[in-house]
Amino acid sequence: MSTAKAPPPSKLAMVPFVSVDHMMKLVHAIGLEQVLIGLAEYIEQDFRRWEMFDKTPRVASHSSEGVIELMPTSDGEVYGFKYVNGHPKNTKEGLQTVTAFGLLANVGNGYPVLLSEMTLLTALRTAAMSALAARYLAPEGARVMAVIGNGAQCEFQVAAFKAICGIDRVRLFDVDPRATSKALVNIENMGIDVVPCTSVEDAVSGASIITTCTADKQYATILTDNLVGSGVHINAIGGDCPGKTELHHDILLRANIFVEYPPQTRVEGEIQQLSADHPVTELWRVFLGEAPGRSDRAEITLFDSVGFAIEDFSALRFVRDQLQKTGQYMNLDLLADPDDPRDLFGMLSRAKLENSG
Ligand code: NAD
Prior knowledge:
Layout: E1 14-18, H1 20-30, H2 32-48, E2 59-62, E3 67-74, E4 78-86, E5 100-106, E6 112-117, H3 119-137, E7 144-148, H4 154-165, E8 169-173, H5 177-188, E9 193-196, H6 200-204, E10 209-212, E11 219-223, E12 233-236, E13 245-247, H7 249-254, E14 255-259, H8 262-268, E15 281-282, H9 283-287, E16 300-304, H10 309-326, E17 330-333, H11 344-356
Parallel strand pairs: 1-6, 7-8, 7-10, 8-9, 10-12, 11-13, 12-16, 14-15, 14-16
Antiparallel strand pairs: 1-17, 2-3, 3-4, 4-5, 5-6
Helix pairs in contact: 2-3, 2-4, 2-10, 3-4, 3-10
Nicotinamide-adenine-dinucleotide (NAD) binds near residues 179 and 215.
């Protein structure tokens, strides 16, 4: 924070910061569904200009308890990154499994132009991305979705599928009934039918879309092959780390698989269970009309979601575009701003004199 006597930092040196509180107010000012629709639009725009972006699999630091990741990208004008963790054991200690923050910067001078919380924003963008993919992949007229895993991501997924795909009924299952009860209360206010279920088999009954969003640091089998009928779209978001998957291998062999960025998904996604040359389709090609999405009603489609840096870039871009409209940010004195750019030391020395005077 700047001292009382030091000259105020120039406007260029101030960085807009969106806190968790700002983000919540921003979402309510715009409306949850409009935010999800807006995020999906921004993600689709950026996926349609896929080839303009610098792309790299995220940089992951694994431990026995979880993972901490950095997710950078740039479109040549704006650079962005997200810091995100994944620690499935955290909820037992009253902490979130996933927390995040992120930044946009001007490529021309390297100065940050936005710093934002991204725990809420990640849940929103993951849900928007899932629903956007489903718009191209789910069977026409799909109205019922099963959600296996009713933790932090669950209601965001439901809200996005309602707003973007027209889902009007969800069937919920979690190994912990308290998670389902929590989700039930939140979803009841969304104007959508919600059915608590007692098993995965019960939940997927009659559902055209199956979302799996469980958290467990192991090769789990949330869905077995016999539970997946023809024509279903699977939105698998919980398998997003080496050694952390949700679907039985045989489902993958029957499905037409769509991914964000193959070099990352082959290491982190459900397809880590398959050979490195197993065919997958990149979603950006589907959005551009270069590759087909769902080709017939009987096909099983799978979005093997792991979360890619461009989605976070799009989400930050969306938030940045809402700042003037909503006023939901504060300026942070994040960058040193000496009068003479080469006199950084002088700025520090003068601050001591000013403070003692
Ligand atoms: P969370 O810990 O809040 O919720 C996970 C829920 O899964 C818990 O309620 C738990 O009881 C339940 N669960 C665990 N094993 C289960 C099983 N076998 N059957 C049914 N339910 C089970 O986690 P969250 O924040 O909701 O995240 C869910 C998953 O999504 C995590 O694995 C996270 O890493 C992943 N994620 C992916 C993306 C992406 O872009 N793909 C983005 C965010 C989170």
